[in-house]
Amino acid sequence: AVVSTQSTGNNHNWIWIGEKEQMNENGEGNGVWEHWNGEPLPYRPSWDRKAQPDNWTLKRGEQSVVAFSRKDGKWDDSFPFKKRPFACMCRQRACQFDF
Fold first, then answer.
1. Distance between CA atoms of residues 86 and 67, nearest Å
2. pLDDT in tens, the chain (99 residues)
3. Chain centroid offset of residue 78 CA
4. Residue 80, preceding peptide bond in cis (omega within 30° of 0)
5. DSSP character string of 22-36
6. Is the peptide bond before 40 cis (omega within 30 degrees of 0)?
7. pTM, full prediction
8. Is 69 strand, coil or helix?
9. What angle do CA 50, 24, 46 make, to 5 degrees?
10. Which of 10, 19, 39, 99 could form a disulfide with 66 if both were Cys (CB 3.0 to 4.6 A apart)?
11. In terms of C-beta density within 10 A (0-12 exposed, 13-18 middle, 19 or more buried), how is residue 47 classed?
12. C-alpha torsion sign, points 44, 46, 50, 56
């Protein structure tokens, strides 16, 4: 995967991967996670051990997108307004990741 180096603050260990939570008409997540283009995930995400997704909500919105940990490959639901590096799509064989 191609990874952007645009990062600020302490978010550099997390990468945007384009997954998001389905939202209802009120802008609330329903707990179903999908690809950026609306296709369902064909696998069960490897969420971080701290009871993720935890769906925190702030005045600016709720955690509705997925960040991927560079350290251990775990997922975390996150706020879309955070500035983090991102991974671009690539062919499946080129995107294999071993821990």
1. 9
2. 444 444 333 567 888 888 888 888 887 888 888 888 888 888 877 887 777 777 777 777 788 888 888 888 888 888 888 888 887 665 655 555 454
3. 7
4. no
5. EE-TTS-EEEEEE-T
6. no
7. 0.64
8. strand
9. 25
10. 19
11. middle
12. negative
Q: Residue 35: exposed, middle, or buried by beta-carbon count in 10 A (0-12, 13-18, 19+)?
A: middle
Sequence-distant (6+) residues with CB within 8 A of 27 are: 61, 62
Q: Identify residue 94 by its one-letter amino acid code.
A: A
CA atoms within 13 A of residue 95's CA, in its CB half-sphere: 11
Cα(70)–Cα(12) distance, rounded to whole angstroms?
A: 9
Q: Which residue has the tokens 């925190």?
A: 56
